[in-house]
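Incident log entry.

Two folding requests arrived from the same account within the same minute. Monitoring flagged them as a possible duplicate submission, but the sequences differ. Recording both here for audit purposes.

Request one:
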Amino acid sequence: MLLKKLTEACGAPGQEGEVRDLIRSEIEPYVDEIRTDALGNLIAVKNPSAAGPKVMLAAHMDEVALMILGIEKNGYLRFRPIGGIDPRVLVAKTVLIGEKKIPGVIGSKPIHLQKPEERQRPMGIDELLIDIGAKNQDEAEKLVKLGDCAYFATKYEEFGQDKVKAKALDDRVGCALLIEILKENYEFPLYGVFTVQEEVGLRGAGVAAYQVQPDVALVLEGTTASDVPGTGTHLHATSVGKGPALTVMDRTVIPHPSLVRELIDLAEQHSIPYQIRRTNTGGTDAGQIQLTAGGTKAAVIAVPCRYIHSAASVMSKQDFESALKLAKTYLLSLHEREGKQ
């Protein structure tokens, strides 16, 4: 299954090669041009010489991860997060390190050895180490190098009613949507851009958008869902199972109002469930794409995911299908408009 392969692949910011190679193999039969730029963005093009609006669809390949920055004499590894990871989700998690995917476990001082004041606060990054079973530094250095990345060792699994759990749904779910969209045919120039380094500052998107200079852009994302016990309904950014989320504002972008309105109208006309993202925290590649060159009309279609930036996120397969239908319906509306001209 496509989403299984994507989520189980590993790609930290700046080290997206494994994910990029997988995506390239999936989309090559369906596109006219495909290239990788200097930063690592994968840019696929359909109908590059066609008339009509130049449309850019974007999804980021990178995931939050941990970088190894120290190897202790006792063989334990010190690390720092790449992207936003809450240290509270790390203790006792299993990880895979580097290209060889060396297994490890994130450990800390046992609770029965902690001082009373230590038990009253979460462990900080400096208090956590990765255990790879090495006896000493020399043995550890034969397995792991400084600069290697550690990834959550989570397998894709379907469970419950229509649910999926996996690592890196932010944003392999967007990558899966974009791959499926590229399998269709369109009358206008369509650029499918799989971006890099979104989790550390939306870096790839701006570089890619400068090359493409699109007339309109849709960003396909996995966004935070906070519909969990203890959180009031008014604090739910999005809810799993209620359709894809449309952004009206976050800390990086105010999507183009007419484009958002068009997506809402299409969803209602075609009975596609949708929701409005109800908080303004976080950001997406739309924030950079919108500002590039002379500016671009941009909007975001996102699949709600619980527990993002942790070892396992949860999403609804129906939300995925509804997001795919909404994106395709928008592109079809452009296709029909161009066909009438």
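Request two (distinct sequence, not a duplicate):
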Amino acid sequence: MAESTTTAASTTAAAAQPLAAITTAPAANTSNALATGNLEGDVINVVDQVKAGVVLISVTSSQASGVGTGSIITPDGFIVTNFHVVALGGTTVAPQSQVVVVLNNGKKYPAKVVGAIASNDLAVIKIEDTNLPTVKMGSSGALKIGEWVVAIGNALGLPGGPTVTAGIVGAKGRSIQEPSGAQLVDLVQTNAQINPGNSGGPLLNLKGEIVGINTAAPVDPESGAAAQGIGFALSIDQTRPIIEALISGKGYSPPYLGILPQEVTPGLAARYNLPSDSGVLITQIVPDSPAAKAGWTANAILTELDGTPINDLGDLQKVLLKHKPGDTVQAKLLTPDGQQKTTSITFGTAPNS
């Protein structure tokens, strides 16, 4: 599970920006679309409302280049996107990367990375200007299964402006593992088409509010091809506290266990004669890590953390999102011979934080 984090030093502008502007006070140049019940009209209204605040992000390093999408969320230029957009699909943001933001009107700005969190596939970048068009954040918790949503992004980097797709919320609370190893949880699943270049763009309700950050089109494990008719977005309710921490200059560091986890499945349990067919198998322990200090051992299965049953990697990540380095919680594990073990563990800070 990726637990790395990269944060830049805070800026004067970051410290001065009131967080309320992100969540409760849209800029004067931002209006709310009103869902009318006419789907075609509602989608058109959403696009008209937000397109000025949805931007193309171009990233170039000495080794690679790529494009993605972002949403301006404050009038003074804070933009939310995916980690893998600014990291060009790598595990870190290259120090010499050049980030350029292009607005819908064609205006270009150099941008700097304020913070980038690999384990959450989330990044905040900043351009310098005032009275910029913004996209308002909504609530992913209020979404209903079957509700219509709109995805906007620079699919495949095609010229001529962003691509708009619409679909429904197929599920909430999904978990997937990205190619980087990051375990993403509490995702919004949709059949609105999400393609390369869409990454970092907004998933919107019919009020024109961000309910998710488009992040992935899953790969079929059998064919290796991108799965059709399914995509995922980071839920805005989960990411909002991290975004606010990065903008305020506080930074964000995920709690660190120091383990290499693997999700237990019935097939894995049968193959290796494991004492449980669910949970998280600890395949490696990092020396001198919190797990090592707590007496955890390789090949044990984590079954509960902080009072929450751990059935899979998604459950583990959800618990970690509620905590910070220095917190102490109780854990239950199954040893390889099936004995239950209870320990306390104090979360640390990842070595590369």
